[in-house]
Automatic annotation (TrEMBL):
Coiled coil: none annotated. InterPro entries: Znf_C2H2_type. Gene3D superfamilies: Classic Zinc Finger. Residues 36-59 form the C2H2-type domain. This is C2H2-type domain-containing protein. It comes from Coilia grayii. PROSITE patterns: ZINC_FINGER_C2H2_1.
Amino acid sequence: MWKCKLCEFSTAVKVRLMSHYRLLHGQHSTICPLACPYHNCMCYFKTYNSLKVHMSRVHDAALQAGRENIGNRRAFKCQLCEFTQPFVERDMFLHLGRHLKQKQIVPCPFKDCSFTSNVYSTFTSHKCREHSNSSDYATELVQPIGSDPPQNFASEEESVAFHEEEPSHEEVYDTDALDDKLEYNLAAFFLKMQSILHVTNRATQEIVEHIDQLFTLSEPILNKVITETLKKHSCPVTDTIVGAVVQAVSECNILHRSVKSKGPLSTAKRRKSYVEQRFPHIKPIEYLIDRTQRKSVYVPVLSSLQELMKKADIADIAFQSTTTNPGEFSSYVDGSYYQSNVFFAEGGAKFSLILYVDDLEIANPLGTSRGYYKMCAVYWSLANLPIKYRSALHTIQLAMLCNSKDVQRFGYDKVFAPLLNDLKILEQDGVYIENLGDSIKGTVFSVVADNLAAHGLGGFNQSFRSVYSCRFCLYSRADVQTLDATIDACQMRSTDQHDALTQEIQENENAGETYGVKGTCVFSDQLSYFHTITGFPPDILHDLLEGVVPVELALCLQGMISLNYFTLQDLNKAIKSFPYQHSDKVDRPHPIPSFSSRGTIGGNGHENHALLRLLPILIGHNIPEGDMFWEILMALKDVVDLAVSHKFTEETLQYMSCKISEHRQILQEVFPNLMLRPKHHFLEHYPHLIRCFGPLVHLWTMRFEGKHRVFKKIIHESNNFKNVLKTCAERHQLMMTYYLSSSRFFKPPVEMSQVKSVFIDTLPSEVQASVSKFTEDSTVLSTNQVNIDGTSFVVGMFVCTGVQNSLPEFKEIINILLLANRITLLLKDYNVWYVEHLRSFELTVNGGNGHVVCCVRQLKDHTPLYAYRVSDRLILTPKHFIPMASPLKLRIVLDDQNAEKLILPSRPETVDDLISEIKTRFELLYDFRLQYEDPDFNNALCNLVSIESLPSIATVKVVHLIDLDLSSISTDDTVILSSPERSCRTEAWPENFTVPSFTYDIEYILSKGNTAYEQEGKTLKLTKDQKHNILEAMAIEMYKYTGYPSGKQFGKAAEALVKKHACLKEKTGTGYDGWKNSLRFKMGNYRTKLSRAGVKDVSVNAGKRSRINPTAASSHSNIKRPRRGEINYLPDYPAGESKESLEAQRNELSREFEKVAAERDGALIFLLMHRTFALRREEIINSSRPIAELRERWPALFCEAQLYKEVHRITNQNLPFSFFASLDRYTPHLLNLYKQKQSGTFGQKMVGLLSDYSKQDKNNVQAARTAVLFGLALYLKEDTSEVFRSCKEADFDKHQKGAVVLLAVTEENASAVPFSPQHVTIILEDQVVLSHRYWADALVILFGLIYALHLEYPEKLKGFFEFIQIVLLNLDDGRRQIKPKLLSLKNELELSV
């Protein structure tokens, strides 16, 4: 089955999927690229043609080659390097071309040809002249490699679809909706031209008019062609007929019909109207500031939030809860300002906004129009989104544009009035979010701006030469020069103190400035939960990268030049000629023209950062150790590396304070007369402010300033200065409209565009075994570059994998492999040495030349780096500080016999990350949860829920998890809820589904329709309401049996419907496929309504969708529903009961079990167990309590009689009766099948089993049952050693460990089949829970416990237990796909009886 990766569409034919791509996802762009449809290929493409080329070259060609060349596979092995890969002619010549471009001598690859060359053009000319049609290559280059087919990226279903013919248009498209969709796509194309490609309205209109003219002028040609075609086919030809056909053909042309005169897209006004009506467009609004007709343009924030939350990928992550380690600062939510904010502390879903205010110059800032078109821009970003999404420019929204002079003239309160009004509404009333079905409140968390704007907005003095120039503390200008805020006592501004100052200023008009405060903050005045002191974070970009860094670079570089270490020309030459790689190319610094009189080198922030970071590599070798100018720059580099880090601990912040203080001390020693700038002082507050705001790099202005380029480009391309504010706002909103109308708002988390196959045996020997675990093929997929969450990982780059000997471990990316649909890095080991003089690391090749494979999430740091070679030394300098955290040492108990040691360089962020790490390290292919020995409870095992609970040295146990079905739930809001009559179901899904009676009007219509169908064969066309009523009644009837019907059950219901009412039969397929799909969606809707009413077996999944609980997981994760034919999976509480009343009855039940067995009231126990059934199922389904805890809370559940009653409540079956009745019926035939099983390892075991059974009494029913059940596992070739065990009484204690064990105690050989055991004990999670005299009866009890406790079948005996469930007990809802061998056995048994 081919599935679209951008929506829920699926089809059996690849051509249909490609047509779906063109029709519904034609708006592909860099934000929403086209995904390769092959399920195990992670490539994305910006154009449809690129996707087609990729599929042709990589998938279709590989698949065809695999079919044609089985037994004749070849590999290309380069003689000039160690490169080896499956032979593809194009790839071979591309590889040889790389050697030629490096001027290496390359021999001709063709057989018996002695030609060599190191010139690319000469080599290609020789190939064309001498070997144009040859494919006979030298055997030393192209060698045969065996008979396994190459990996072709296709599953069996995909392979089947390879040769299918393209279906007709009627099959591919719904022609009724096609016309409208094509018109929509054309409008989207015009929208892209204007908003993304920046084509002006005038140019677009000219294009439209020329297209219309071309169609008009081509009508005679069309008339002629149609006339000739009609004559050719002997059709009557008249002017009327020809004219009508020409008219019809013209009307079918969407492009012509849309752009012709009075067409919906024929003019700019019509196109604009179309976009506003059909697209998610938020229109900018012009506001008059005052009566002078001065205007501002405002984009409503509330409307923008509503449109954003309509995007599923935004709504799914906007309110996801994040977990962080105590004492760690990795997000703004870790900061004290967020946590102390009363608004956010209330809990629940809340919008957290980050505003950005800045002035930008649209015209040339050095020209005659300087300042005339300077405008103030207000952007905002949704802080609820993870930082990896917030950094994308299109996620930064426009709020307001106004003239900068108007802000100075009228003040922020008047100019920002529309914005402030919306923010006030958001804070007090909230905004209704359709997807969530509720109003969500929000407020501004912080306002990001440069220092000048922050002081102006906050009501502080905007002169940084005044006495009090710091908005964070009360240091005076003199204190800044003499006191170090990281060491000396510093009085920080507080909210209460600031409120008192502003009140004093308001009461006294002549007060002027008080401690740097001139007035109130416009945001603080209007918003109840925003405060000036807690709302304006510092900005790394302006404080450091465009403030302190360029100033100190100028000072120190001049000092080193004066000492003749190098000249300015030498430095500029090094900057120009340096071989920048990867992201360093984008940030490469410009040469320094001269040191200005202002004492700074100037430059942009990203260029200054790159220059400071790469300066040790550029000129470090010229500087003698101990030089003080150099030490200042290296100390500054340390500070910058710390400031731009994304994660901090208290230890890191203390280290940062020391580094800032050290930098200040050295600077003042070398330059005693230097007047420190206010930005030097702001820097000293950074450790404290990180504790308050979280990582400051998440709140800097660099990404917001990148948004300015959008407006500058709009004006540059449109060349329209008539109404700059309106032009910029409208064009920006058209761009946002285009992005919001795309299938996906965010880029895919993993992107790549080129993949190829590599042989596993060509990989380093150390990793071949690990890689082979993930595939049975001889090849794996690889790529040279992958983009993960916006970060590019490229072969040749270095990544930090951990910490060893207090130094980070850096490894080189040798290859990037795709294993089990996840990115795995093949890494090469290096020795790491810290070079303090360069504040960088020197890398040397590990003598052992070791290699490892590593998932990206396992990396210590997720920023890949490039190492540069300097004087035969490989030097790597990080982009930010890498913390050296203490390792986590764990003893991992995998099972009773295996325990492994695991040392992690740092504590994983979540429990899921630890589980992923354990899966990878120990190559575990199953799902599990973790328990750990808790020192607070004498090392008793407890479930690991929070990663913070895990000690640094701990024992962790792996416990198998239940494999849940993750099918999605569809919703629809049109159904009417019906109330279930009782909390428990009493019937399973019937063999023949009974169609319910519908309302009188529907029954009347169907009766007439059935009569017409019998007489004329005419089907009935229903209105929307009529179909809705039928589906509603069907959904209510289906829910009587199950809340989650399987595909098979949907089909049975749909088939019964059209069988009873033949007039509803469809003309294609089975006649009821459409009804089946409609029932599926309607049932999803009915579940939603029941969920809102609180019905438990569906409301247990209600929190998945953000509409019900926006802070929960996505809607497709961990769906809880029946999967083993349970009738009562999660029933509602009995009428009149609550959780508290049922808990009281549970306590009464426990007290009854504290009595001796003879004194217990059996009738009372049964009654209490029946009443508390719903509470018990709720606990078992929704929690992962250990067995020991369940035994303590529900002791009756571990009694045989009560267990059988519990299974009856769940399945409506008498377990022992049904089990043994079916088993005894099939026993003769099964024994005959066993006798035919004589070969192989399992066959030999079967011979021994039958031999032992022949020695038993033939009238012994227990012996026959034991033989049949033991033989069943052998027949299915399943390993029984872990579950079915035998021992002697003396060895009983040695075998009491295991997740699921049936332990038979015998007097004879412990390895024999226990036909006559002394007793059989059932063990769950190392707990002895029950015993029985006979082995078969004990197995029935074990099966009942698995059902009652909702346990997973033992991994190695899944087929055995599925046989019991599906064949013996007939507990099959059609959802589980039966294995072929089990299905064959089931069919054979059914035929035999």
